[in-house]
Amino acid sequence: MIRILALVAALVCAVPAIAQPLPANLDKANAIVIDTTKGRIVIKLRTDIAPQHAERIKLLAREGYYNNVPFHRVIEGFMAQTGDGKNFNGTGGSKHPNLPAEFSNVPYKRGIVGMARTSDPNSANSQFFIMFAEGASLNGKYTVIGEVVSGMDVVDRIKRGEPVVDPDKMVKVQVASDIK
């Protein structure tokens, strides 16, 4: 009986995250929807400041590259990083070439989504991170690709660690306009 109640509770918690409507006035062609093990996150992509990076995120989402990918590096008070659909641990990138930097003057603050890279400014590929708080040290040094418009409460519940033990995952990532 306890197992059945736990299963019902898990299903009840999961359904609202998947069934919830997208934010009003969202440009669905330039937004991604991330259904995670903790709930749904919606990110508005900043095609105005990082068009190549936004297109890459949409391409990888459409290829299914991000599905079941863990949040492998989650630092309290800083950010949650994901996007390694190759090795699942932060050491891999996609089959596509690295992207040239598209730095802007948009400040890193809570909810901003940035593209991860190595020390080479032109090495962003597939990995990205969501800011928990202000990160002024990143300003002008990492490409801002978007901002969370719904689901920061979900981001706040992602399991912490560097690396994370038994991490939360992006179960399914879709371009909002592709959702049927």
TrEMBL record:
<dbReference type="Pfam" id="PF00160">
    <property type="entry name" value="Pro_isomerase"/>
</dbReference>
<keyword id="KW-0697">Rotamase</keyword>
<comment type="function">
    <text>PPIases accelerate the folding of proteins. It catalyzes the cis-trans isomerization of proline imidic peptide bonds in oligopeptides.</text>
</comment>
<comment type="similarity">
    <text>Belongs to the cyclophilin-type PPIase family.</text>
</comment>
<dbReference type="InterPro" id="IPR020892">
    <property type="entry name" value="Cyclophilin-type_PPIase_CS"/>
</dbReference>
<feature type="domain" description="PPIase cyclophilin-type">
    <location>
        <begin position="28"/>
        <end position="160"/>
    </location>
</feature>
<dbReference type="GO" id="GO:0006457">
    <property type="term" value="P:protein folding"/>
</dbReference>
<dbReference type="GO" id="GO:0003755">
    <property type="term" value="F:peptidyl-prolyl cis-trans isomerase activity"/>
</dbReference>
<protein>
    <recommendedName>
        <fullName>Peptidyl-prolyl cis-trans isomerase</fullName>
        <ecNumber>5.2.1.8</ecNumber>
    </recommendedName>
</protein>
<keyword id="KW-0413">Isomerase</keyword>
<dbReference type="InterPro" id="IPR029000">
    <property type="entry name" value="Cyclophilin-like_dom_sf"/>
</dbReference>
<feature type="signal peptide">
    <location>
        <begin position="1"/>
        <end position="19"/>
    </location>
</feature>
<keyword id="KW-0732">Signal</keyword>
<dbReference type="InterPro" id="IPR002130">
    <property type="entry name" value="Cyclophilin-type_PPIase_dom"/>
</dbReference>
<dbReference type="InterPro" id="IPR044666">
    <property type="entry name" value="Cyclophilin_A-like"/>
</dbReference>
